[in-house]
Fold this sequence. Notes:
Elements: H1 7-13, E1 17-25, E2 29-30, E3 50-51, E4 70-71, E5 86-87, E6 91-105, E7 108-117, E8 149-157
Antiparallel strand pairs: 1-6, 2-5, 3-4, 6-7, 7-8
Amino acid sequence: MPRFENRFARAAFTDWRISPIFRYLTGAALTVTTGVDRALNDNTFTQRPNQVLPNVYAGGFLNYLNPAAFAQPALGTLGNMGTYDVFGPGMFEVDAGLSRVFPIVERTRLEIRAEAFNLPNFFLRGNPGTSLNSTSTFGQITSALNPRVVQFAAKFVF
């Protein structure tokens, strides 16, 4: 921050420290599962469907995966999709901190700090549903990550 000549302005506005953090995170790797036992091996958690369309993404904001791009495999067979073949939505986040140390006398000082996470309060989407047999939620984003969070702190050092 700039240093002011006016005594009041210098006392109020000088020596502040700003620490912004800009983050862009790619989406998490996800595995689409059938949700039912199509391979007839009593395991519903690791069986994957067939991908029948080249593009699995729906292009919508909350309708993220295209259900028409997937099909249940034939009974007694395994699907053609691998693990971690689709990616969840990425996110851009801005965090910032503002702090200042106020000297009081000799070795005594007061430190104050304000921090804001997700400062612009972007809507940060969670991952879509990936169980193909959940027809009402498959491919849809039904959760959100943290909204803006602000915290303040003060520390008296003596």
